[in-house]
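Pasting two entries for a bug report.
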Amino acid sequence: HTLAPETYLLIQNGVLWLYTVTSLHNSVEQSLLMSKSPQDVLRQIKDEGIELIDLKFTDLHGKWQHLTVCTDLLEEESFTEGLAFDGSSIRGWKGIQASDMAMVPDANTAWVDPFYRHKTLSMICSIQEPRTGQPYERCPRALAQRALNHLASTGLADMAFFGPEPEFFLFDDVRYNSAEGGSFYSVDTIEAGWNTGRIEEGGNLAYKIQEKEGYFPVAPNDTAQDIRSEMLLLMGQLGIPTEKHHHEVAGAGQHELGMKFAELIQAADNVMTYKYVVRNVAKKYGKTATFMPKPVFNDNGSGMHVHQSLWKGGQPLFFGEGTYANLSQTARWYIGGILKHAPAFLAFTNPTTNSYKRLVPGFEAPVNLVYSEGNRSAAVRIPLTGPSPKAKRLEFRSGDALANPYLAFSAMMMAGLDGIKNQIDPGDGEDRDLFELPAEELSKIATVPASLNGALEALNADRGFLTAGGVFSDDFIDNWIDLKYEEVQQLRQRPHPHEFTMYYDA
């Protein structure tokens, strides 16, 4: 509510704040002014002639699931009591003996879905238990809310901002198979350097992009300018604050769209919408998009760098003038928690076997558990932000976009909060060229786990920082480890095509 010119009243995580525009963070101001009530949504349905309601929710693995209902099923009570559905078929959730669940839509996430023929209003939902009305313990979005409630309860900060940077590949053709008698995969794009000798309709015009030369040539080498522009502008129309787009380093069709930071849950919602828009616009142009970290051998993989900062009472907590990278003591402790617990929370930020084919020492991949102003192989980078305290933040670079953003952001924040609580010293910033260090010195620098199995083992051994405040429960973590260990076993049991190259006639 507007109380007076340039004055706002904000309830954030159960805490009441009075802000003036000059002290109000831009992202907070935007979300405050754009907030919708259930009544607003019901009015929009009537005024705009909405035909159907699409309810989307995120499963454990970070994929959107959805249910489309007629408009007369949505009532004001639906925004508190939810709409019932069967949750027994969602991977890692309930058994058939206790399958009743409820989707509770968030009115602030309402937008008209641009990919449906009939006029359909889309909303993102959290999941709750219909019998008790309590949030479902394994719902990722509900877990993120528990993380924010815990943040408020600590008194250390009252707001957590996240700025994710998901990267992806666009391909023209993707084929794969995994069976008892054979397996293969094949990805292709007109941009790839390996296609300089291909016979193409109308003639091969060259203009291919060679390995690691995709950052960032203009057309005609860059063939996806209009596709990325449509993706970015459409994201903006759906309420995501956007900044830029460009071709990424990998020559074989790697791209990135830039969006602004937001509060934790909104940032995770934005990532889910980002992926949805990217995949569907790509399909419109006859292409396919993947967020796999390493779909192409011997070229750069795709990550999801995540910028993050804490605020309290409308003031940034990570700025400290005259220190290394102008970091406050709070920021240093937060970094200490990130570096200490990264091997464990990588099970959430890098949750696939493919994730660790990107995290290989000796390349640009951020595998070293140090922080730095400049080293892009450091797990934590401190961006150069100028003199403004509001812009001071850290960037965790090791994660990738196959992460469930609600779980990944919550896990990183919990690690940082543990660092502040226990005053974990991250040591000095590492500004040496890590590629030029002698092997003896490099061996003293800790690195991220080399496999998903290694991250799962680290998570099993180091989980206390996640269970603080009941944010992640032991049941949630045990279930996650079981689900992901099944993926580890799936890969372990299968011969790899390259093993035939190495061993068939050995």
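Entry 2 (this is the one that rendered wrong in the viewer):
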Amino acid sequence: LPDPKDKVGVLTTYREAVDLIGARQLDAGLKKLREVLDQSPDMIDVWLQYAAANTRVGRLGVAYDAYREVIRRRPDQGSALLGASSVLSGMNRIAEARKYAELAIARTPAEAHQMLANLALNESRFDEALRQAELAAAAAPGLPAPQLIRGISAHRRQRYAEALPFLEEARQAYAKRTTQVNDLHFYIGDSLARLERYPEAEPFFKEELRLYPQNTRASAG
């Protein structure tokens, strides 16, 4: 291993990158992360942050390559497998996304089954989506995956009044967890808007944008 004294500059650059990303200066932060990786390509956490930040700015191909780099170095890295699955889903490469999610089951079963539920939703396979959501909840008691999937399934079928109780139950449960779900607040806002409950809808669109500033559907809403 290298002498830590020789890596002080790398650590300084890394801290600068984290601060920039925290301040939502994503392009500047990504440039700093790339500098770190060019000097220390074995830093797995930096690859993961580089992939996540590229996902936030919509560079899914670059993000996928970064996740692939992590998987090449650590084939059982669950977050990299799930990250690769997520960006492939965003690129509409569903079959490939499913393979990565299935590989992640052994390491992170709840998150992997949640990903498989989302992929099934994208194909309008609602029964399979609910089955995977229930497996996710079984792996992590208290995870409101079934409520989320029921709510989104009803929304996709344009049953907005039916969707709202499930989505609200999921929102309240996720509020107690450290990880939030992409699009949950959007679906609540959109359901309310389609029911012409506009003043109630607006705060949910704004909350979605606070959590995920690149969510164009929330911006449109």
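Dev reply: Rendering is fixed now. As a check, the viewer should reflect this: The chain has 13 helices and no strands.
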